[in-house]
Amino acid sequence: MKIGITGYSGSLGKTLININKSNKIYRFRGDIRKKSDIKSWFKNKKIDAIFHLAAIVPIKIVKKNKKKAYEVNYLGTKNLVNIALKNNIKWFFFASTSHVYKSSKKRINENGKIEPISFYGKTKFLSEKFIVKKLEGKINYCIGRIFSTTNKNQKQNYLVPDLKNKIKKTQKKLKLKNLNHYRDFISMEDISNIIFVLMRKKFSGIINIGSGRKTYLKDIAKIILKKYKKDANFEDISKTTCLLSDNLKLKKIINFKINSNLNKMIF
Predict the structure, then answer these.
(1) What is the mean pLDDT of residues 188-200?
(2) Is the pTM here over 0.85, yes or no?
(3) pLDDT score recorded for residue 45
(4) How far apart are CA 136 and CA 9, in angstroms?
């Protein structure tokens, strides 16, 4: 398969490329907001599949520049989908997010209530709706609702690297706020392997990509505190939220066990 990847320079994009064994990879190096850049990328290439990862993240950055996030995450996706339709793509993967769901104490399946918990989630859900509308019955598409992830090389402004940096550098006793939330962490290696399996099986539709295990964010902080031999007080201001995947649909498709180890993901 000849694969075109947007967002190749992000942590997930790099992981996908690194574990790729037999597929030709074409990296998109332009501005997803410019149709001319996308058209140039497709020119003289016979791309079979698209892995669309490009987006403005993390949440902190999205909040600071909602206009750019909307343009890249949604309008950029529209541009890519419309042009992909004209280039005989066989499979289109869209990296969506668990942030499209409403927080729930129960496991969330693909039919869970849609009520984005962030502006980032809103841009992704807008893109989801457009993809379904434009590609249904024309191109096999996969909307992967990816739950939380991290690795030791993840950039700043994401939760885990920011916690690591703050805890490592602060000498006095720390005060850590708003970690009273539950998330489902899955490694980038597992996500990448899952995407390749979904492509090989030409899966079409919406699917949760998560470990199915609940992690309390305070426990992540405690792992980092222990590593650096620090202490902290926790202050809970925000209302507790929970995003935990029901990944039964995924488990029926993949042929390996999800072994995301939180300690290995962090350090």
Answers:
(1) 98
(2) yes
(3) 93
(4) 29
Instruction: List the domains of the chain with CATH numbers.
Output: 2-150+185-212+245-255 (3.40.50.720)
Q: pLDDT tens for residues 115-159?
A: 999 999 999 999 999 999 999 999 999 999 999 999 999 999 999
User: CB of 211 within 8 A of CB of 194?
Assistant: no
Residue 130 to residue 74: CA distance in whole angstroms: 9
Rounded to the nearest 5°, which phi and psi values hold at 175?
A: -120, 115
Taking the C-alpha atoms of residue 28 and residue 98, their distance in angstroms, rounded to an integer, is: 25
For residue 237, pLDDT over 90 is answered with no
CA–CA gap between residue 188 and residue 159 (Å, rounded)? 15
Return the bridge partners of 175, or none: 233
Angle ∠(16,21,27) on CA atoms, nearest 5:
45
Contact by Cβ (8 Å): 57, 157: no
Of 155, 172, 168, 149, the residue nearest 223 (C-alpha):
168
Q: How far is the C-alpha of 178 from the C-alpha of 235, rounded, in Å?
A: 6
The rounded Cα 31 to chain-centroid distance in angstroms is 19
* Rounded CA separation 208/109 (Å): 7
Task: State pLDDT tens for residues 215-225.
Answer: 999 999 999 99
Strands of the 215-216 sheet, one edge to the other: 215-216, 182-183, 242-243
Contact 41, 89 (CB under 8 A): no
